[in-house]
Amino acid sequence: RETGQPGNGGGGGTRGSCAPAPAAALPSPLARPPGDDTEAWNLSITFKVTKLIEGQEQNHQHWLKLSFSRRDAQPTESEKEIYNQVNVVLKDAEGILEDLQSYRGAGHEIREAIQHPADEKLQEKAWGAVVPLVGKLKKFYEFSQRLEAALRGLLGALTSTPYSPTQHLEREQALAKQFAEILHFTLRFDELKMTNPAIQNDFSYYRRTLSRMRINNVPAEGENEVNNELANRMSLFYAEATPMLKTLSDATTKFVSENKNLPIENTTDCLSTMASVCRVMLETPEYRSRFTNEETVSFCLRVMVGVIILYDHVHPVGAFAKTSKIDMKGCIKVLKDQPPNSVEGLLNALRYTTKHLNDETTSKQIRSMLQ
To answer: Gly residues compositional bias: what residue ranges (predicted)?
Structure first.
């Protein structure tokens, strides 16, 4: 699956009046253009949605305000504990993306060592090149564990009773912003990983060489960095086409299964609401025309795809069934309306990392849209 797949990589709240509700903030991208202090990041949109969740008839109007300003969504006192914990993780996210983007691999040294197995200098050179790279891969893997813990903390805060998912997104804007930032990072990480075969090649060479060293009783400096148990877990992680998405999907599924006293709708409605908000912003010319920076569009697209995938893994019948609260045809159309090169990775994420796409309950139209 690793080499065979190309690519990179809701409900309304009740207010009782038609006055705009407080903002459910979605954040600026991590990879924002340098020096860009206003522009799309200072964008606010308020719009009315009469039926965000398909299949739910609403007799009143819902208002959602979306803010893209970096100065918005400061945590309230009740949010601060979770916010601060997640913020520590997110501060390292941009550095992780930069390290992954600059990852070049040790392909040349490995080829030389394999072609000249009797040349000890070439063997040492290849090993010396691979060991620090495996240190980077270890850092990426450990960050995925930190990100998983951060996501579970946010899910706990955004789905707790007695508030509805939309009320949570309105009340806890700072946490909603962090949730979206995690999804944006995740899709970006997986896009970069999927287009870099050096990652798996380097790690495979490292494991083969380490195994050979053990058989020959040769001390290996890299083994202290990544022992056999950790190497096994890292191997499973990097074998996934989209390892970060897989980590978050598993974490969301585990969160739901461990919190049986919490209605599953608390989680799925939170996800479907965010998907609907992103879709409406992207498909409505009035709102889309206010995006003067394409990175804002990319951010919304990644968040939309991320929440769809999580929803599909958590909901019993998934995101593609007729009873789904996500308008999948609308979401796919939004993706297809973008320049093809910019969204192929996101379409591949829907094709290959969702759980229910090939179920009998998925319409032929949706399947054909993703072919």
So the answer is: 1-15
